[in-house]
Specification:
Layout: H1 4-18, E1 23-28, H2 38-45, E2 52-56, E3 59-63, E4 68-72, E5 78-83, E6 92-98, E7 102-107, E8 114-118, H3 141-148, H4 155-160, H5 170-180, H6 193-219, E9 251-255, E10 258-262, E11 271-277, H7 283-292, E12 298-300, H8 301-308, H9 314-322, E13 327-328, E14 331-332, H10 334-343, H11 345-369, E15 372-376, E16 391-396, H12 399-408, H13 413-422, H14 426-432, E17 435-438, H15 443-460
Parallel strand pairs: 11-15, 11-16, 12-15, 16-17
Antiparallel strand pairs: 1-6, 2-3, 3-4, 4-8, 5-7, 6-7, 9-10, 13-14
Helix pairs in contact: 1-6, 5-6, 7-15, 8-11, 9-11, 10-11, 12-13
The structure holds zinc ion (ZN).
The site of zinc ion has 7 residues, from loops.
């Protein structure tokens, strides 16, 4: 199917050939191509000149004197400009007789193409099902971010969705994702700001190169003009066997029902793993193991939280303002703050509303850097942060261990028990977690379980 660059090339070529030509007569040889009554179509079009040549998505828009003629080539529609001596082919369905004795013929083997007439309009709002043009200012970071937020569809499928961005088809979507180094199966909401910037740049770069290439291909045609289909494009990944960058094998998969080519090495999946656990479950040991032995960066929500409450940090001023009762000698009394939020859910929420967006902002920076993003999030389910992650690893220890652990931190037996009771129940957490590790106290077993959990998550998403 012709995509944006092909349609643009057809349009540019026709503009050079038939601009200001007048339609003398029209023959409609296959009526369903036209979306309105044949006589009405003829009476509105005969006598009109081809004045301006525009495009919206994959639609060709010919602005005549009084009306806009819309043509969609669909699968195999083509236009030919021929003289009147050339015999009519059985696939020529609409013939426009022009005032210079040439004919504009619409040819379509599969007969899927459509033509209609609409009012001349500056913005063509009638195409409201279409997203912005890739080259327009409306296709920008904020627009994309809003579209992708909470979007669980694979990015390949989103790029093909004409309501997101107009004109991109299967071939260019693969090429754009290769340029972005983004796995086609990455879900929309995992696409970072950095990815979006690359996507916008990639769309424009790849499409404009194809338009340029199309122009030169078309110019090499001489007498008859078969404006359609694919040109000799420099495809890097689509239908290719080896990646030009890493020389690895290109993989073919199906995404949203479409054949999709990508390099598994250059286009790694973005995955966000949350590591959480009950009190004394060995969460920090597991995080340190992943960090030091496995070499992955592990984002530590608690540490960031603490940092945000240091004087001069972004959260400090806001918290001081919101909790004046916790300020002593113009300094934040963190113990007093902890006491207040432990006993009062409303105050706790107030503090979270200040700190969580700031932690999330720090987290986004780390996500940008790491395709495999792992974070230690102590209260993952309680704070409903599991929605920001693709999967979670929950570490669980028994109550005896939990109490022992809390006692080491200076809690009395009674306080320890009430602290445990205060948390979401282990059963509830187990229901929500994607993987569970029962830590019986053996470090060796803990490490083996962590290895297994991370490996299986990575394998499942490649
Ligand atoms: Zn590669």
């Amino acid at each position: 199917m012709p995509e944006l660059p092909e349609v643009q090339t057809v349009l540019d070529t026709l503009e050079r050939k038939i601009k200001n030509r007048k339609i003398i007569n029209i023959d409609v040889l296959y009526k369903p191509i036209i979306d309105l009554d044949e006589d009405v179509f003829k009476s509105k079009m005969i006598g009109q000149h081809f004045r301006h040549f525009k495009r919206r998505g994959k639609y060709l828009l010919f602005e005549m004197d009084d009306i806009t003629f819309v043509s969609h080539l669909r699968m195999e529609g083509k236009y030919f400009i021929l003289d009147d001596k050339t015999p009519i082919s059985k696939h020529d369905h609409v013939i426009f007789y022009l005032d210079d004795n040439t004919q504009l013929r619409y040819n379509d083997v599969r007969k899927f193409g459509r033509m209609e007439l609409i009012d001349i309009d500056k913005n063509y709002k009638v195409f409201k099902e279409l997203g912005p043009e890739p080259f327009s200012d409306d296709f920008n970071l904020i627009y994309c971010k809003n579209y992708l937020i909470n979007n669980n569809a694979p990015i390949k499928q989103i790029l093909l969705n004409q309501s997101f961005v107009a004109g991109i088809g299967n071939i260019y979507a693969d090429e754009i994702l290769y340029y972005m180094k983004t796995n086609p199966n990455t879900i929309g909401k995992n696409i970072t700001d950095g990815d979006i910037k690359k996507m916008i740049k990639g769309c424009r770069l790849i499409l404009s190169e194809a338009i340029k290439k199309g122009g030169t291909t078309i110019r090499s045609y001489t007498s008859s003009l078969g404006v359609t289909g694919r040109f000799q494009l420099d495809l890097k990944v689509h239908t290719k066997e080896k990646c030009p960058k890493c020389k690895g094998d290109i993989k073919k998969i199906v995404v949203g029902g479409r054949g999709t080519y990508y390099c598994p090495n250059c286009q790694k999946q973005r995955t966000r793993i949350a590591l959480t656990g009950t009190i004394g479950s060995g969460k920090s040991e597991a995080a340190n193991y992943i960090r030091n032995e496995k070499g992955f960066e592990v984002f530590d929500c608690d540490a960031v939280n603490k940092k945000l409450l240091e004087p001069n940090a972004s959260g400090y001023k806001q918290v001081v303002k919101a909790f004046p009762e916790c300020v002593n000698d113009s300094k934040l009394d963190k113990q007093a703050l902890a006491k207040i939020i432990f006993n009062n859910p409303k105050e706790k929420k107030k503090l979270e509303n200040i700190l969580h967006p700031l932690i999330f902002k720090e987290m986004e920076k780390a996500i940008e850097k790491n395709k495999l993003f792992i974070a230690e999030v102590p209260l993952l389910f309680e704070s409903k942060w599991d929605k920001y992650f693709d999967c979670s690893i929950l570490l669980v220890s028994n109550e005896k261990n939990m109490i022992k652990h809390l006692k080491l931190r200076g809690f009395s037996s009674k306080d320890a028990k009430s602290r445990i009771k205060n948390q979401m129940s282990v059963k509830e957490k187990e229901k929500r977690a994607s993987r569970i590790i029962y830590n019986n106290g053996s470090l060796r077993n803990l490490y083996l379980s962590v290895d297994e959990a991370i490996e299986s998550i990575i394998n499942a998403r490649n």
